[in-house]
């Protein structure tokens, strides 16, 4: 039987090796994170907390999908030993000491979502403090988030390893996301343009592909160096294309390694 924890005192009596931080609305992408976590440590904890600090749009926060019962089932089936469902005052009991995501926190996702990454880093650091895992696992789908969390762990010398897990996609290549529930069938078809775009190996070809889908409104498309998150140049070894945009009001992001042969 999966254990349910609501407070930090409650958690202090347990020792979890691996933490899978989530905001709930769990899907097959989270399932894969939990399954990978289970191969890395004996006891896996899934946290479910919709962090108000990382939502600049309060309607987005209010409407964020919630499905606690099915989340519990999915977490248990995937092999989690515990679920941590704190309230806001457990995570932020006093004055909030916000972590800054620095310059990169204001680019790409951070440009459209000011302060978003400060909120992400702040909650992730609190979750690490409360749950003291040896390992924490994050999906590659939020590649800028993953980069910034790894950087924070290194900069602050946090005593844990950050592990990344590949993006899970549907049969048409659409990256799984809790926000996909907002897409109807036509919008899902339009969203396939993102995967098609990411198949190309240079920005010109990517932009050409995007012309085929007027329903996708591009926010940014860039090829970056995975190790620095700076724009890639001809010497970059590990290139990754990052993309974000909207279908109607629904924001979608994705990324994929780019062949260095181009
Ligand atoms: O990726 C997410 O679901 C969230 O940003 C995270 C890492 C759980 C922090 O709230």
What's a concise summary of this model?
The chain is built from ten helices and nine strands. With 262 residues, the chain is an alpha/beta fold. Strand 2 (18-22), helix 2 (28-40) and strand 3 (44-48) form a beta-alpha-beta unit.
What would you say this structure looks like, in words?
With 262 residues, the protein is an alpha/beta fold. It folds into 2 domains: 3-165, HUPs (Rossmann fold), CATH 3.40.50; 182-254, Pantoate-beta-alanine ligase, C-terminal domain (Pantoate--beta-alanine Ligase, Chain: A,domain 2, 2-Layer Sandwich). 36% of the residues lie in helices and 21% in strands. The chain contains 10 helices and 9 strands. The strands form 2 sheets. A 6-stranded parallel beta sheet has the order 1-4-3-2-5-6, with helices on both faces. A 3-stranded antiparallel beta sheet has the order 7-8-9. Strand 5, helix 8 (143-155) and strand 6 form a beta-alpha-beta unit. The protein is globular, with a radius of gyration of 18 Å. Bound molecules: pantoate.
